[in-house]
Amino acid sequence: MKKLLLVYGVLIMIFMVYSYNYFSKDPYMNAWDRMDGGLRGEIDEKYVMVTFQIGNEYWKNILKGFEDAAQALNVSVEYRGSTRYDLYEMSTVLEQVIARKPAGIAISAMDAEGLNPAIHKAVEAGIPVVLFDSNAPESDAYVFLGTNNYEAGRTAGHEMGKLLGGKGEVGIITLPNQNNHQERVRGFQAVMKEYYPNIAIVSIKDGKGDKLVSKQAAEDMMRDYPELKAIFTTEATGGVGVGSAVQNYRHIKIISFDTDLGTLDLVKDGTISATLAQGTWSMGYWSLQYLFHLHHRLTQQEMAEVAANPLPPYVDTGITVVTKENVEHFYAK
Amino acid sequence: MKKLLLVYGVLIMIFMVYSYNYFSKDPYMNAWDRMDGGLRGEIDEKYVMVTFQIGNEYWKNILKGFEDAAQALNVSVEYRGSTRYDLYEMSTVLEQVIARKPAGIAISAMDAEGLNPAIHKAVEAGIPVVLFDSNAPESDAYVFLGTNNYEAGRTAGHEMGKLLGGKGEVGIITLPNQNNHQERVRGFQAVMKEYYPNIAIVSIKDGKGDKLVSKQAAEDMMRDYPELKAIFTTEATGGVGVGSAVQNYRHIKIISFDTDLGTLDLVKDGTISATLAQGTWSMGYWSLQYLFHLHHRLTQQEMAEVAANPLPPYVDTGITVVTKENVEHFYAK
Lengths: 333, 333
Description:
The structure is a homodimer. Chain A contains twelve helices and twelve strands. By secondary structure, chain A is of the alpha/beta class. Chain A folds into two domains: about 120 residues, Response regulator (Rossmann fold, 3-Layer(aba) Sandwich), CATH 3.40.50; about 140 residues, Rossmann fold, CATH 3.40.50.2300. Chain A is elongated and about 95 Å long. About 5% of the residues of chain A have low confidence.
C-alpha cells in the first residue's frame, strides 16, 4: 500500500513540474523563441476592426475572416465603426479605439487622406495599423490588403468577351470620380483593346452609386444604342438598378460587381450573367494575421528598424467570378 | 492514510481524463476547431523550398524566412534545388520532391512555363504549391509572393530624381529580354516622365547579367554621352560591373539592384549611391505560412471549392532603399 502511495506521489510531482514549466515562460526571450511550438496569443489581447457604414452587409464576411483568425491565434476581436459615410464620425470612433490601446487596428479607409492623422497617432503610440478594402497610400499603416481593381476589371473584360462571343456593343455604368472604379474601367478597356477588337465600348455613364440613377442611365443607353448587347456596372447598387432596367430587354446581358443579396438574387434568376466577388474573407483573416505579427514583433528582427516595411506592403486578396453555377455558395451562411 | 490514497486516486483520474480529452481530438472536426488555441503543426510535417542555382547567396535570406516560419509553427523544412540554371535539372529535383509527398512546396520558377507540368502534378496529388520570387502565371500554384518590379522601378526613379536634383542625363543597363527587368525599366521611365521632365534617359543597353559586358556598356555610354550624370542598373552583377567602370569617373552616380556582397561593399565605399533590397525574408516566411494554411485547410471552408483562390493570389513583398546610412544592416548575419 505504501509503495502504491509512493508511485502516486511521484506521478503527481511529474505532473506539477510539467505544468510549472509549461506556464512559466520567460517574457524576455526573443519573439521567435517565445512563440516556439505554435503561434498563439493571449485571450485579453484585443484587435479592433474599424469601418464606415457599420451596418452594411459588405463587411460581414471580412469580419468573419477577422474572427476566424482570432480563433486560430487565441486572441480577441472587436468591431467598431461609424454608422454613416461620414469622415468626422469615423475619425471620432477611431480616436476612441486608439485611446483604449488595443493590440492592433485594421481599418477600411473611407477617405484616402482624411484618416492619416489618426493612423499616425496610433502607430506613434505603438499600436500597429493595417488597412483593408480601401487604401490610404500616404498613411503610416504597414500593409494594405484589398482587391487589385485593375485586374478585377480585366477579369470582367474576359467574362464579357466570352459572354458576347467576342463581338457587339457594350456600355459601362460606373463612378467616374472614384479611383477604384476608374481602375476597374481601365482594366476592362485594356482587355477589350487587347483581346476583343470586335467589341465596341459605345458609352460610359455615371451611375452615382444609386439604384435609380443607374436604372435611368441604362435606359438612356439602350435607347441611344439599339444594338447594345451588354452593360458592365462597376458597383453593386448600380448593378441592381441596371437589372431592373433590363427586365423588358432580356437580350441585354449584365456583368456586375460584389455579392450583396440583391445582386445574388439577380444572378440566380439570370438577369445578371456574372458578378465579381472580392476576397473579403481573406481581407479580414490576413489583416488580423499581420496585426498579430506586428504586435508580437514576429518580423525579421534586424530589418525591422531599417526596412521600409517589415511586412509585405500589399496583399492582393483576389477576385472570384460568380455565375448561376456557383451563386449558392455566396449567400451568407 | 486510506483517505489520502483516495484523494491521490481522484487527482490522477482527473489528470487522465484531462489528458485523454487533450490528445484524442476528433480528426473529423473542422480545421478551425482543431487549431483552437494556436496555429501549430507537427514536427514530422515537412515543407520543401525548391530553387535553381542552389548555391546563390540570394536565396539565403529567403530560406531564413522559411525556417523562421517553420519554427513559429512547429513544423520542419528542407531546401532542395538544381545546382545550375538548368530547367531539366530543376524539373528532376522537383519530381523527386513530389514523389516524397511533402506537406507543401515553395518554388522559385526559373522558367515562366517549363515547370507547369510538375506543379500540376503536385497539386493534383494534393500537395499545395506556392511560388516566390519568380512567377509562372499560368501554373496551378495558389499564390505568388514576390517583388512588384514596376513599383521597384518607380522607387529607383524617385531615388534618381533626388540624387540628381531633378536634372541631367541618365543611362540604363538592363536585361531587355527578361520580363522582370523590363518592368523595372518601365517603372523608372514612368516616374521620369511624370515627375522629372528635366532628366533625360539617353541610352538603354543590354548588360547580359554579366560583369564584363556591363562594364563595357557603361564605358561606351560614358564615352558617347560626356554629359552623363548617372546609370541605373536593373541587376546586381551588372551593378558591380558598372561600379568598376566608373572608378575613374567618380561624378557618375549609380543606382543598382539587390544586396549581394559585392554590391553592398560598393554602397559602403560610395561607388553605388543606392541599391534596392527585395523583401526576401518575407518571401520565405509568408510562403511557408500560406503552405501551412493550405495543408491544414485553414481557408474559408465553404468557399474553398468555388473560389478561384482560397488565399490571396498575390503578395507584394516590398522594396527597401539601401544607402550608406543603413547598409550595415544588410550584410548577412
